[in-house]
């Protein structure tokens, strides 16, 4: 199998183009293929037929500089309204070619609006590795990746604006996070995982800048649809302009597909959220069970430990729900296991390192069932070997 994720390990790898994942590549990437089974089981949902003449123009309406279909924007707002995970009233929405494009679009735009100084882009470890790799690779004169926000204080003088990237729930460890006030001037909340199948919805997020992606909602990562919800009009216009200059908008086919997929979710819950056939029920059931499996494999291991997650009340499901994270964030506890990813690799499991040293490795729980079964078989064997050798 060919894998994209080795890109994100380090800046050096990032320039190495495609790299063969090898047979254990299953656990490396966050590619959300677990949703494929849902769409296969419901073939009448989400299907889109596109005639040859459909939206050939750059614009979505003749003679109007409109990048996105009204239907998509309305559907996104309706989805947030139904789920209750983000405030969209009186906010602007910019759609991008995946939230990957929007991470840079927002960082660049914030830096541009503070262009009298060089901004620092920071993220607290462990953070989604693309923040650093993308920022460094694009190598802008307007900003640098400066790693750890704790190194800066709110009242330091003569420094550039600090732009903090924070994923909440976090990738890799699924923890819900907030940035303490007065640390960074600008905070970009990446809510890729703030959906009821991945994490309990505890409130409607109301931050100045929030990013979302279709990839982790419906699993359609290949459609490359993400959106930013932005409070400030100037920032919204600047981010929009980035999308115009960078990709001249977003694929109209993808917009249509995203609209249809999201409408399907909304419709499946329109008769009340008890609908067990809904995508969020499906995703939660699969991920809760995968998490329980990983927990039971590692529970008696002294060599490996797993992140701690607690059940919490979810407003969407109107009940307390068990953890259902997209990733297992594993720590190698033995002193000699200095490189946790290498330990996994020795057992045929390719995990991913993040910006927090070599002691930890991330394993994806988001892939197809067959991949997950290979992962658990290999992990079980590794743990058993360890127990019998100690
Ligand atoms: N943010 C986070 C935290 C992610 O995990 C990912 C995908 N792995 C992205 C952004 C990028 O998502 P997209 O597919 O929309 O580019």
Would you kindly provide a written description of the structure presented here, covering whatever features stand out?
Helix 3 packs parallel to helix 7, helix 4 crosses helix 6 and helix 8 (279-298) packs parallel to helix 10 (369-389). It is globular, with a radius of gyration of 21 Å. Helices cover 33% and strands 16% of the residues. It is built from 10 helices and 14 strands. Mean pLDDT is 89; it is low at 1-25. By secondary structure, the protein is an alpha/beta fold. It has helices at 11-14, 36-41, 70-83, 98-113, 130-138, 233-247, 252-268, 279-298, 340-346, 369-389, and strands at 2-3, 19-20, 92-97, 119-122, 143-147, 162-167, 186-190, 209-213, 225-230, 304-306, 312-314, 319-321, 327-332, 360-364. It folds into 2 domains: 2-39 and 276-389, Aspartate Aminotransferase, domain 1, CATH 3.90.1150; 46-268, Type I PLP-dependent aspartate aminotransferase-like (Major domain) (Aspartate Aminotransferase, domain 2), CATH 3.40.640. The site of 4'-deoxy-4'-aminopyridoxal-5'-phosphate (PMP) has 13 residues, from helix 4.
